[in-house]
Write a structure and sequence with these properties.
By secondary structure, this protein is an alpha/beta fold. It has eleven helices and eight strands. Helix 2 crosses helix 8 and helix 7 crosses helix 8. Keywords: Hydrolase.
C-alpha cells in the first residue's frame, strides 16, 4: 500500500526572530538556510517541570545512563515497586520529559506495574542541546538492556514513532501503545519548513541533509514503515482535534499494523489526551 499524503496543521506560533533569520539565510544561500533549519529541527525546548509532575519526579529513582551507540548520557526514572516484575517503558515526545506520562504511570502502579521512563538526549535533565529520533531509539534499546525485560511500551508523539521503530529493531515487548504518534517523516519535514516560512523545496533539502549526515534513509523511520514489521498487538490512540499531529497519521499507522486497535477521541488534542481518564482506562484494559 502506498503512503498517503496527510493533511498538516500548524499549532505552534514561531517567534518572529526565527522567521526573520530563516528568510535572511535563504536569501544568502540555500546551504545556509538548510543548515539553520536542521539545527532548529533538532533542538528541543526544555520546559520547566510542571507542578503536576513533581510527585512522580520526587518518588522516582533517578540515574544517569550512558548510551554507547550514540555517545550520549540520559536520565532514567524508575517509578513504582521495585519487586514488580511487570515493567512498562514510557517514552515521551519531542520537548517532553520522563515524567510527562505521570497520570498513565500512576494508574499502571495501581494495577501492579512499575514503570521506567527517561529524559531523551537534550530533553529534561539529560545533557545536550540537539537530538534526533535515532537517539530516542538507541536510548530505548539500551534501557531494555539495563532495565528490561519490559512487558509493554507506551509512547507519545515522537515517542510513539520511536516505540514502533524500536520494536522493528528488536525491542521485545508483549504489547505497545502509541498516542498521538507522528507518521511519515517527509510530511513532518514539510510541515516544519512551512512553519518557518521556507519554500517547499527545503523539506527535501532537509531530508537530504539528514540522510547524508547520518547515512540513513529518513523514510525508513516513518511510523507506517516500522508498523509493517511489528507483529505484537498495538493500541493506536489519536484525537480528532490534535493540531500537532493530524488524526490521519494514527489512522494510516493503524492500517499498516498486523494486529492493532484504533481509538479515535475528540476534544482532547495532542497533550490533554495523556491525562484523560477514559483514555487511560482503555490503555489498562488493553494491556491487561
Amino acid at each position: 500500500m502506498t503512503k498517503k499524503s496527510q493533511k498538516k496543521t500548524q499549532s505552534l506560533k514561531i517567534p518572529q526572530y526565527i522567521l526573520i533569520i530563516s528568510k535572511i539565510s535563504s536569501l544568502i544561500s540555500s546551504k545556509l538556510a538548510t543548515s539553520f533549519a536542521a539545527r532548529l529541527f533538532t533542538t528541543p525546548i526544555k520546559h520547566k517541570i510542571p507542578a503536576r509532575e513533581l510527585d512522580m519526579e520526587l518518588k522516582s529513582i533517578q540515574k544517569k545512563l550512558w548510551i554507547p551507540t550514540i555517545k550520549k548520557e540520559i536520565i532514567t526514572y524508575e517509578y513504582g515497586k521495585s519487586e514488580s516484575k511487570r515493567k512498562v517503558l514510557l517514552v515521551h515526545g519531542w520537548s517532553g520529559r520522563g515524567t510527562q506520562l505521570f497520570k498513565i504511570a500512576d494508574e499502571l502502579l495501581a494495577n501492579g506495574f512499575s514503570t521506567v521512563s527517561f529524559d531523551a538526549p537534550a530533553h529534561g535533565k539529560s545533557a545536550g542541546k540537539t537530538t534526533i529520533m535515532m537517539d530516542f531509539i538507541e536510548s530505548i534499546l539500551e534501557i531494555e538492556k539495563q532495565y528490561g525485560p519490559f512487558e509493554i511500551a507506551i509512547g507519545h508523539s515522537l515517542g510513539g514513532m520511536s516505540v514502533l521503530n524500536s520494536v522493528k529493531k528488536g525491542l521485545k515487548v508483549q504489547n505497545a501503545v502509541i498516542i498521538g504518534s507522528g507518521d511519515i517523516v517527509q510530511d513532518i519535514l514539510e510541515d516544519f519548513t512551512s512553519k518557518i516560512k521556507l519554500k517547499p523545496i527545503y523539506s527535501q533539502r532537509l531530508c537530504d541533509y539528514f540522510e547524508n549526515r547520518y547515512k540513513v534513509k529518513m523514510n525508513d523511520f516513518s511510523a507506517y514503515v516500522a508498523a509493517q514489521k511489528v507483529k505484537i498487538p498495538v493500541l493506536v490512540i489519536h484525537d480528532k482535534n490534535d493540531h500537532d499531529v493530524p488524526v490521519t497519521a494514527g489512522i494510516h499507522i493503524h492500517k499498516h499494523l498486523e494486529n492493532s486497535e484504533l481509538v479515535v477521541t475528540e476534544g482532547l488534542g495532542h497533550r490533554k489526551i495523556l491525562g484523560d481518564k477514559d483514555v487511560i482506562q482503555k490503555i489498562i484494559n488493553f494491556i491487561k
